[in-house]
Amino acid sequence: MSATDLPLVESQAVTSSAGRPWGFWPTVGLSLAIVFVAVCVETMVTLGYMVFRPGILSTDDGMLVALTVLAGAIVVPLSCLGCAALKKGISVRDYFALYSVPLKQLLAWLGIAIVLAVATDLVTGVGKIEQWQENTYRSATFKPLLWLAVVVGAPLTEEFFFRGFLFVGLWKSRLGGIGAILVTSLLWAATHTQYTLTSIVSIFALGLVLGYARIRTGSLVVPIAMHSLTGFLAILETAILLHIRS
Q1: How confident is the model at residue 18 (pLDDT cuts 50, 70, 90)?
Q2: Three-class secondary structure assignment of 192-203
Q3: Which of 233, 200, 188 is nearest to 124 (CA)?
Q4: Which residues lie closer than 8 Å to 117 by C-beta, 6 or more apart?
Q5: For the chain, what are the domain ranges?
Q6: What predicted TM-score, i.e. pTM, was given to this entire model?
Q7: Is-contact 25 40, C-beta < 8 A?
Q8: Which of 25, 157, 172, 225 is geometrically suited to a Cys-Cys bond with 72, CB 3.0 to 4.6 A?
Q9: Coil, helix or strand for 222?
């Protein structure tokens, strides 16, 4: 068995029955283009926010975080889908493995996500909240928007990019499945510099599990659901702890 495939890949993943995705270098180039577009949109949202809410701009402003994340949740998935659509011979559905999975299987992976969330709490310290996380939640004047960004926006943005477009291109290159999991997990963790090193390491570990779930189930739906659940648990814990402290 080559390094290209993990032993538990299921038939719904991008296989020989579908066309080939973009190769390594086209994937890298298009991924950089997607990031550039996302940064431009985030910058425009930030500038617009500064116009309507003048004052000292802070990267942990809850409303700004929510707006930029939700804008990214529109632009990034659409950009990923658009880049995949340019590749002839493979449907967008096959490219991103947008397949349903049996409920029993989905619940099992969601259970794993809960175990990881508990383990992360034990490692980082039960009852502790990242300062950035606390500031963001406290400063969000309309908290449902922040909840929407964390539970829906971030999972869609990050999974379509990291476990979606970028992942497939790396997986089908010489890096193989293990390489794709490692590289995307490292890059994903590196985007969370607002957290402490311990939390970044925990995010990297979660990325490894999400990548494995992507390959094991042959569906992007599963890591999206797992990411959404962990986001929900994180913001719920933050809300409860801050309520208790107040």
Answers
A1: low
A2: CCCCCHHHHHHH
A3: 200
A4: 229, 230, 233, 234
A5: 24-245
A6: 0.91
A7: no
A8: 157
A9: helix
Task: For the chain, give the mean pLDDT.
Answer: 91
Cα angle value 199/121/134 (rounded, 5°): 65
* 122: exposed, middle or buried (Cβ count in 10 Å: 0-12, 13-18, 19+): exposed
- Secondary structure class of 101 (helix, strand, coil): coil
- Can you read off the two tokens belonging to residue 211? 């990548």
pLDDT band at 11 (very low <50, low <70, confident <90, very high): very low
Cα separation values, 135 from 21, 49, 96, 108, 216, Å: 41, 18, 35, 33, 37
Reported as half-sphere exposure (CB side, CA atoms, 13 A), residue 95 has a value of: 24
- pLDDT digits over 104-163, tens only? 999 999 999 999 999 988 887 777 888 999 999 999 999 999 999 999 999 999 999 999
The set of residues, in sequence order, having a beta carbon less than 8 Å from that of 242 and lying 6+ positions away, is 129, 134, 137, 138
Tokens 């300062």 — which residue?
A: 131
What is the C-alpha separation between 112 and 119, in angstroms, rounded? 10
The answer to whether the beta carbons of residues 184 and 163 sit under 8 Å apart is yes
Q: Rounded to an integer, what distance in angstroms lies between the CA atom of residue 208 and that of residue 4? A: 16
Three-class secondary structure of residue 80 per DSSP:
helix
Give, as one character, the DSSP assignment of residue 175: T
